[in-house]
Design goal:
The protein contains five helices and no strands. It has 131 residues and is mainly alpha-helical. The chain is globular and about 45 Å long.
Length: 131
């Protein structure tokens, strides 16, 4: 029963995207927290973590999530993926920057940014990048 459920979940694009995002988020948050620890400003730490996490996300998304939608020449998809990442980066930096300006704990602001950025980039990637 459990094996069957896992197999069905593996076929669901959104579920695979969540798993890939958790991996990329681990990279992002690790870098973010490390940079905060050494005194880097919250907005810069957030943006840096996001950029490094996005490289991990491309690798995971293109190899485990949207495998049936890859183009032979992936340059267009890579460019569109980077464009969607820039949208996510702007959301992340904006939310964390606004949170910091309002005195919100940067970790809380980052969590809010993650929720907004995650759904925005998923929709962009599903409907445009890997369409």
């Amino acid at each position: 029963m459990m094996t069957r459920l896992l197999t069905q979940l593996g076929r669901v694009t959104y579920a695979r995207y969540i798993v890939a995002s958790v991996g990329a988020l681990a990279v992002d948050m690790g870098v973010f927290m490390a940079l905060l620890h050494v005194g880097v400003a919250a907005m810069a730490a957030s943006a840096t973590g996001y950029m490094i996490g996005i490289a991990a996300h491309w690798l995971l998304s293109s190899r485990t999530v949207f495998t049936d939608r890859l183009e032979r020449n992936r340059n267009r998809q890579k460019l569109m993926f980077v464009a969607s990442a820039i949208v996510g980066l702007a959301i992340t930096a904006g939310v964390v920057g606004a949170g910091a300006a309002l005195g919100v704990d940067p970790r809380i602001a980052k969590l809010c940014a993650i929720a907004i950025s995650f759904n925005t980039t998923y929709l962009l990637r599903k409907r445009i990048v890997f369409s």
